[in-house]
Amino acid sequence: MKFLTTNFVKCAVKSCDGSEGSFPLKYENCQLQLEEQDFNPEFIVSMLERLDWNAIIQVASDLGNNLLPSQKPEDIDGNSEMLKDLHSLLIETQIIDGEMVCRNCKHVYYIKNSIASFLLPPHLAK
Amino acid sequence: MSGKVQPSEEEIKMETEKFHSRETPKLKEIEFVHDVYNEIAQHFSQTRYKPWPIVSNFLETRKVNSFGVDVGCGNGKYIGINKKVFILGSDYSTGLIDQAKILHERESFNDIIVADGMNLPHNDSTFDFAISIAVIHHFADEKRRIDAIEEILRVLKPNGQALIYCWALEQEKSRRGYHEGMEQDILVPWVLAKKTEGKKNQPKRKGKGNKERDVEGEDLVEQENKEVIVEQIKNEEKPPVKMRFYHLYKKGELSDNCIKAGGKLVREGYERDNWWAIVEKVQ
């Protein structure tokens, strides 16, 4: 799972909808891998607009990276260094193994072989 | 692919009884959709590579750098069509997602997860667009089919559009021959045939007058293209046929379900034995 995707997934349990703890999930015991990917600066600029930056900071911190700026970077159009850093973080960083925990209901989701699973046990699924 | 080996009447009857005996639609889906896809994933994936024109066109006309979700992406046939949009593909079947991973390794413009279409792990109003191709027809009652569409609309941004495809009841021109007036809830077999050394050992079927229309009045001989799997069956006791549940949509039903789910119908149509609808999330 790409780091980017952590900004778009939450706890799947319906009763957690709207609760603050259900997004972002807490990432634990994760193994990361850097995977070289095509660099598309325009995509990064456009994606940055829709990112929940606080969630990005929180997940990065879960994964051991506390170096991100506290405010979402702005006007990065020509800032190729910043764009490459974001590309490397969002697109090239893969979580290949680990756990995602809902801070609200404490349900644990697993990432194995780079695939995150959000399937729920029958009693929690609609 | 070798000759078609049919499920026996006994097997069909047994599977149908089993299906009806499962108490809830959820249990029916686990056994007659999810388990089957996991079992047939590898071969199924080999038969799913040709994109349908209307789906491709929908994807090609999305805004550059927009962000979409493919609910029930299977082997990811559609997550790589347009490299100028980012698509998050999800499927209930771990087996199919494993296939998607093999086929879409190291692509920068998509990602895949395992998720349940009825319990999508996304915040409200996350995506610019959505597709759900040949998925909603696997939910085992009407309420769940409408709820599944509602769930897709929930994760779409206001004014975001979803393209939804479901198998049609009206397939007179196809060799399957489903048509108006037939039972809409059917089991479709994926035949597991025994692999043999030579083809001469394949059971032969002669004559077309055999009684092969037992389940829900449907023709179980000619099903989806290439859906005959030849697989080594080590355990002789293992049933050589896997039945998947489908609800065949009749004319007008998909758009009706989309409206009941709270969406605004933008366009609808029929393509290759399927009804499709583009539905928009209202503010």
UniProtKB/TrEMBL annotation, chain A:
<dbReference type="GO" id="GO:0005737">
    <property type="term" value="C:cytoplasm"/>
</dbReference>
<keyword id="KW-0539">Nucleus</keyword>
<dbReference type="GO" id="GO:0005634">
    <property type="term" value="C:nucleus"/>
</dbReference>
<dbReference type="InterPro" id="IPR039127">
    <property type="entry name" value="Trm112"/>
</dbReference>
<dbReference type="GO" id="GO:0030488">
    <property type="term" value="P:tRNA methylation"/>
</dbReference>
<protein>
    <recommendedName>
        <fullName>Multifunctional methyltransferase subunit trm112</fullName>
    </recommendedName>
</protein>
<dbReference type="GO" id="GO:0046982">
    <property type="term" value="F:protein heterodimerization activity"/>
</dbReference>
<comment type="similarity">
    <text>Belongs to the TRM112 family.</text>
</comment>
<keyword id="KW-0963">Cytoplasm</keyword>
<dbReference type="InterPro" id="IPR005651">
    <property type="entry name" value="Trm112-like"/>
</dbReference>
<dbReference type="Pfam" id="PF03966">
    <property type="entry name" value="Trm112p"/>
</dbReference>
<dbReference type="GO" id="GO:0070476">
    <property type="term" value="P:rRNA (guanine-N7)-methylation"/>
</dbReference>
Automatic annotation (TrEMBL), chain B:
<keyword id="KW-0489">Methyltransferase</keyword>
<dbReference type="GO" id="GO:0002098">
    <property type="term" value="P:tRNA wobble uridine modification"/>
</dbReference>
<keyword id="KW-0808">Transferase</keyword>
<dbReference type="GO" id="GO:0008757">
    <property type="term" value="F:S-adenosylmethionine-dependent methyltransferase activity"/>
</dbReference>
<dbReference type="Pfam" id="PF08241">
    <property type="entry name" value="Methyltransf_11"/>
</dbReference>
<dbReference type="GO" id="GO:0000049">
    <property type="term" value="F:tRNA binding"/>
</dbReference>
<feature type="region of interest" description="Disordered">
    <location>
        <begin position="198"/>
        <end position="220"/>
    </location>
</feature>
<protein>
    <submittedName>
        <fullName>tRNA methyltransferase, has a role in tRNA modification</fullName>
    </submittedName>
</protein>
<feature type="domain" description="Methyltransferase type 11">
    <location>
        <begin position="69"/>
        <end position="164"/>
    </location>
</feature>
<dbReference type="GO" id="GO:0030488">
    <property type="term" value="P:tRNA methylation"/>
</dbReference>
<dbReference type="GO" id="GO:0106335">
    <property type="term" value="F:tRNA (5-carboxymethyluridine(34)-5-O)-methyltransferase activity"/>
</dbReference>
<dbReference type="GO" id="GO:0005737">
    <property type="term" value="C:cytoplasm"/>
</dbReference>
<dbReference type="GO" id="GO:0005634">
    <property type="term" value="C:nucleus"/>
</dbReference>
<dbReference type="InterPro" id="IPR051422">
    <property type="entry name" value="AlkB_tRNA_MeTrf/Diox"/>
</dbReference>
<dbReference type="InterPro" id="IPR013216">
    <property type="entry name" value="Methyltransf_11"/>
</dbReference>
<dbReference type="InterPro" id="IPR029063">
    <property type="entry name" value="SAM-dependent_MTases_sf"/>
</dbReference>
<feature type="compositionally biased region" description="Basic and acidic residues">
    <location>
        <begin position="10"/>
        <end position="20"/>
    </location>
</feature>
<feature type="region of interest" description="Disordered">
    <location>
        <begin position="1"/>
        <end position="20"/>
    </location>
</feature>
